[in-house]
Write a structure and sequence with these properties.
single chain; alpha+beta; four-stranded antiparallel sheet; 2 helices; 4 strands
Length: 115
């Protein structure tokens, strides 16, 4: 369906934007934001977003197009959140849910990116 493919394309663009903010943060601070427990990115007040915003890199961060639809937590089958974790600031993982298998090199379901 067009809407699901469109949302997945938006997710990929959002994840690219989040990764760019992490490159800037790391170049300023010498590490990534430390959030030792995986957080749902809400764009403003979660551990990840507040670190990026307080550094002046962005005023608000992107959230999943279906943010929170289905409720649940990071990793649940129908939970539409971007999820971030970095235990030591040396690396990070962002996880996100794709609705289709139409993104080249990605599969339907949970995907993750790291530096």
């Amino acid at each position: 369906e067009v809407n699901t493919r469109s949302r997945d394309a938006r997710r990929e663009a959002n994840i690219s934007e989040l990764r760019r903010t992490l490159v800037l943060y790391e170049s300023n601070r010498g590490r990534y934001p430390v959030c030792p427990t995986e957080v749902q990115i809400n764009g403003l007040t979660d551990c990840f977003s507040s670190a990026i915003i307080s550094e002046g890199i962005a005023n608000v961060l992107p959230i999943d197009p279906r943010n929170g639809v289905g409720g649940g937590n990071c990793g649940d089958d129908d939970s539409f959140y971007y999820c971030y974790v970095s235990i030591d600031g040396q690396s990070y993982t962002i996880r996100y849910l794709l609705e289709t298998g139409t993104i080249l090199g990605k599969s339907e379901g949970w995907n993750s990116v790291s530096p």
